Automatic annotation (TrEMBL):
Record pathway: Purine metabolism; purine nucleoside salvage
EC number: 2.4.2.1
Binding-site list for a purine D-ribonucleoside: E185, N227
Name of the featured protein: Purine nucleoside phosphorylase
Function as written in the Swiss-Prot or TrEMBL entry: The purine nucleoside phosphorylases catalyze the phosphorolytic breakdown of the N-glycosidic bond in the beta-(deoxy)ribonucleoside molecules, with the formation of the corresponding free purine bases and pentose-1-phosphate.
Keyword Glycosyltransferase: yes
One BP annotation, GO: nucleoside metabolic process
Entry's family note: Belongs to the PNP/MTAP phosphorylase family.
Superkingdom, natural source: Bacteria
Single annotated GO MF: purine-nucleoside phosphorylase activity
Pfam families: PNP_UDP_1
Residue numbers binding phosphate: S25, H56, R76, I77, H78, A108, S204
Keywords for this protein: Glycosyltransferase, Transferase
Amino acid sequence: MGELADALRSQLGARAPRIALVLGSGLGALVDAVEEPKRVPYSALPGMPVSAVSGHAGEVVIGWLAGVEIVILSGRIHYYESGDPAAMRPALEALKAIGIEILVLTNAAGSVNPSIQPGEVMLIEDHIAFSGRNPLIGEPSDARFVGMTTAYDEALRTAMLRGAVKVEEGLHRGVYMWFSGPSFETPAEIRMAKVLGADAVGMSTVPETILARFLGLRVVAASVITNMGAGITGDELSHTETKEVAPRGGARLARILAAALPHIAA
C-alpha cells in the first residue's frame, strides 16, 4: 500500500483531489470529459490491482471535471477474477493515503425493476451482499465491525439528485444486489432478487463500499442499467450487450456527475 500510494502521490504533483471515481464495465468514455487529464496505466503503478475484463481500460486518470479536481480509476478488479472480495483494498487504501475523502462508485447492472430500463441510471440507496463474502474477513482489528446503516452517504445522494435535476436527466433510486459472477443470474435468482427487495443486480461495487466505509471514506454509487435481468425478456444475457449498452447510460451518468460534482465537493 505504501509503495502504491507513493507512486500515485508522485503523479499528482501539486494537485490535491478529495474525490475519486471508479468506473465500471463499458463506462471508460466518462474520462473524455476530464480536463487536463494525466493518464497512468495500472501497469506503471506497483501493487495496483489489474483487471483482465474487457471493457475496463486499466488506467488512472487525474484531472478536472466540472471544475473539481478528481482521480478516476478507469476499471476495477472483481471478486470473480481471483476469488478475493478484498482485491480492491490496496487501491482504496492508496486513495485514502493520498487524501481522498469521497468515493464515487459506478457499475453496469441488470434491472430487476420493470420501471428501470436499459440505458437508464439508478442511484444506489442500499445494497444486498448476496454473495455471502465480505472483504473484511481476516481483518484482525475491531475496525472490521463496520456499521452499514448509512453506507451510501445521504448528503452525497442528494447532490447526485440535484445534479440530475439540473441537467434534466432521469435518475432512478433503488437497491443493488451483489452476485459473485462471473456467470449471469438465472431467471429464478432474478425472481428471488425482486422478492428480497432488489432493483438491480451486478457483480461489483459492494466489496468496495464495505472497504471504503472501513477506511472512513464517504460513498455514493450509481448503476448504469445495461439489460433486464434473466427471464424478464426471454433474451440470453452477454457481456457484449453490457459493453454495447453501457456507453449510452454512461453518457447520461457523465452529465449527471458533471452537474453533481460541485455539490459533492462542497
